[in-house]
């Protein structure tokens, strides 16, 4: 942080505001209305998203004096790899609405600051392209378990083949949440056909689309409630197909883009998924498996019993269920459920983290690592790769500084003893 203050002394202004609220407000000024609504929005009355922030407000950090914190080490082992610090970049779909470099800009920024990006199934850039940018490793893949098992298997195999270090299965989006801002303005992936890069670059998905085109009466394509893609969507789909080796512009001729959006619409949700399906995923890959969206300690226990490698406590940033419990409030109980089974599986946390001090609180309440969602998307919208890098740099710097001022030399010293409930 000394370097950040020094830069300010010499008149160099940061590319993005350091404060979380000003960051969001600055992003709102540069983003398209519908894009900002998609990123910032949450389910229903957005009480779950507010609860995430209120939960942090209930905690106070207790500093310690005269501890030698001259040397601090934020590094940790996570799922078999060494990480420089405990911050992860959460999977966020349709990043192309924030910046045209989308997932590539995020990957580059993550590499600059030693953070692991978690690449979404709803990404704007195919995973192979991001993996090549990262040199074939240093990222996790987030899976939305498709209604089509063959497609799911194909996505997992591709992730493994291109160097993903873990598969994060997001369980809380078995159907898409009720999000008034998107409902009123149009949900971007559906309305514009964006965020489909992992699908349109997938051989199984492409086969399903081809079959659909061959079988359907052209008049019927698009009978799914999704409106037909706009010319912008067709352009997006065409450019996505260019990312995929072996695909040619001719592969994606009308009515393919429309059939692709319809096929995606049908395969996206899988509300029938149960614990009984997990062994099939285990059989598909030797990569560590992390379950994202766990809030109930009983679910955490089942996950440990099922032999998963990591638990990710999250309420999806309040985007799925209105009035959900705050993810932070669920964290201590989930951690207890995992540790009481003798499991050392990492407990990852996200939802509502806006500052380095927030990350400190989550770590003190038992998180092994902490995910950041919306803040880095705002950084991306404001200044592309540099914006994401600055958001990340600021969070790591503030976490490091908080550790210094609370007498914590390493993450193992960031414990519940460093917190008090607000009076
Ligand atoms: C998300 N999130 C998400 N999660 C996931 O597993 N796959 C995805 O594709 C997405 N997409 C997505 C888009 C947008 C715009 C947002 C804001 C979030 C949820 C994300 O991974 C994370 O759980 C939350 O964003 C964390 O909350 P905060 O940090 O945004 O409060």
From TrEMBL:
<dbReference type="GO" id="GO:0010181">
    <property type="term" value="F:FMN binding"/>
</dbReference>
<feature type="binding site">
    <location>
        <position position="38"/>
    </location>
    <ligand>
        <name>glyoxylate</name>
    </ligand>
</feature>
<dbReference type="Pfam" id="PF01070">
    <property type="entry name" value="FMN_dh"/>
</dbReference>
<feature type="binding site">
    <location>
        <position position="120"/>
    </location>
    <ligand>
        <name>FMN</name>
    </ligand>
</feature>
<feature type="binding site">
    <location>
        <position position="316"/>
    </location>
    <ligand>
        <name>glyoxylate</name>
    </ligand>
</feature>
<dbReference type="InterPro" id="IPR008259">
    <property type="entry name" value="FMN_hydac_DH_AS"/>
</dbReference>
<feature type="binding site">
    <location>
        <position position="170"/>
    </location>
    <ligand>
        <name>FMN</name>
    </ligand>
</feature>
<dbReference type="InterPro" id="IPR000262">
    <property type="entry name" value="FMN-dep_DH"/>
</dbReference>
<comment type="similarity">
    <text>Belongs to the FMN-dependent alpha-hydroxy acid dehydrogenase family.</text>
</comment>
<feature type="binding site">
    <location>
        <position position="319"/>
    </location>
    <ligand>
        <name>glyoxylate</name>
    </ligand>
</feature>
<feature type="binding site">
    <location>
        <position position="144"/>
    </location>
    <ligand>
        <name>glyoxylate</name>
    </ligand>
</feature>
<keyword id="KW-0285">Flavoprotein</keyword>
<feature type="binding site">
    <location>
        <begin position="350"/>
        <end position="354"/>
    </location>
    <ligand>
        <name>FMN</name>
    </ligand>
</feature>
<feature type="domain" description="FMN hydroxy acid dehydrogenase">
    <location>
        <begin position="12"/>
        <end position="423"/>
    </location>
</feature>
<keyword id="KW-0560">Oxidoreductase</keyword>
<feature type="binding site">
    <location>
        <position position="142"/>
    </location>
    <ligand>
        <name>FMN</name>
    </ligand>
</feature>
<feature type="binding site">
    <location>
        <begin position="91"/>
        <end position="93"/>
    </location>
    <ligand>
        <name>FMN</name>
    </ligand>
</feature>
<feature type="binding site">
    <location>
        <position position="314"/>
    </location>
    <ligand>
        <name>FMN</name>
    </ligand>
</feature>
<feature type="binding site">
    <location>
        <position position="292"/>
    </location>
    <ligand>
        <name>FMN</name>
    </ligand>
</feature>
<dbReference type="GO" id="GO:0016491">
    <property type="term" value="F:oxidoreductase activity"/>
</dbReference>
<dbReference type="InterPro" id="IPR013785">
    <property type="entry name" value="Aldolase_TIM"/>
</dbReference>
<feature type="binding site">
    <location>
        <begin position="373"/>
        <end position="374"/>
    </location>
    <ligand>
        <name>FMN</name>
    </ligand>
</feature>
<dbReference type="InterPro" id="IPR037396">
    <property type="entry name" value="FMN_HAD"/>
</dbReference>
<keyword id="KW-0288">FMN</keyword>
<feature type="binding site">
    <location>
        <position position="179"/>
    </location>
    <ligand>
        <name>glyoxylate</name>
    </ligand>
</feature>
<protein>
    <submittedName>
        <fullName>Alpha-hydroxy-acid oxidizing protein</fullName>
    </submittedName>
</protein>
<feature type="active site" description="Proton acceptor">
    <location>
        <position position="316"/>
    </location>
</feature>
<dbReference type="InterPro" id="IPR012133">
    <property type="entry name" value="Alpha-hydoxy_acid_DH_FMN"/>
</dbReference>
């Amino acid at each position: 942080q000394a370097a950040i203050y020094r830069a300010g002394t010499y008149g160099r202004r940061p590319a993005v505001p350091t404060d979380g609220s000003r960051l969001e407000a600055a992003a709102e000024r540069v983003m398209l209305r519908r894009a900002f609504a998609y990123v910032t929005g949450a389910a229903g009355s957005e009480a779950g998203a507010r609860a995430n922030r209120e939960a942090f407000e209930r905690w106070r950090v207790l500093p310690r004096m005269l501890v030698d914190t001259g040397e601090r080490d934020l590094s940790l082992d996570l799922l078999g790899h060494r990480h420089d610090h405990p911050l992860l970049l959460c999977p966020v779909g349709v990043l192309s609405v924030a910046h045209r470099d989308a997932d590539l800009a995020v990957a580059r920024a993550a590499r600059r600051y030693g953070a692991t990006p978690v690449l979404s199934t709803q990404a704007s850039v195919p995973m192979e392209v991001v993996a090549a940018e990262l040199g074939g490793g240093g990222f996790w893949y987030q899976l939305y378990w498709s209604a089509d098992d063959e497609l799911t298997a194909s996505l997992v195999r591709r992730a493994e083949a291109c160097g993903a270090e873990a598969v994060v299965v997001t369980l809380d989006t078995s159907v898409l949440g009720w999000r008034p801002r998107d409902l009123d303005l149009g949900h971007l992936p559906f309305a514009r056909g964006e965020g489909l890069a992992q699908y349109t670059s997938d051989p199984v998905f492409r086969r399903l689309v081809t079959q659909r085109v061959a079988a359907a009466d052209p008049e019927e394509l698009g009978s799914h409630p999704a409106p037909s893609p706009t010319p912008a969507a067709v352009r997006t789909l065409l450019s996505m197909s260019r990312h995929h080796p072996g695909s040619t512009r001719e592969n994606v001729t009308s009515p393919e883009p429309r059939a692709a959006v319809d096929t995606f619409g049908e395969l996206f949700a899988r509300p029938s998924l149960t614990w009984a399906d997990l062994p099939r995923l285990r059989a598909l890959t030797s990569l560590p498996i992390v379950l994202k969206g766990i809030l109930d300690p009983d679910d955490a226990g089942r996950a440990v019993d099922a032999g998963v490698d990591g638990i990710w406590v999250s309420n999806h940033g309040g985007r799925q269920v209105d009035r959900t419990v705050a993810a932070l409030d669920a964290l201590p109980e989930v951690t207890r459920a995992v540790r009481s089974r003798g499991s050392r599986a990492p407990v990852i946390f996200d939802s509502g983290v806006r500052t380095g001090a927030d990350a400190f609180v989550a770590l003190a309440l038992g998180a092994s690592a902490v995910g950041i969602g919306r803040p880095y998307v705002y950084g991306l919208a404001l200044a592309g790769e540099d914006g994401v890098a600055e958001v990340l740099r600021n969070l790591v710097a503030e976490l490091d500084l908080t550790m210094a001022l609370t007498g914590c030399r390493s993450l193992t010293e960031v414990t519940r003893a460093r917190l008090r409930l607000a009076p």
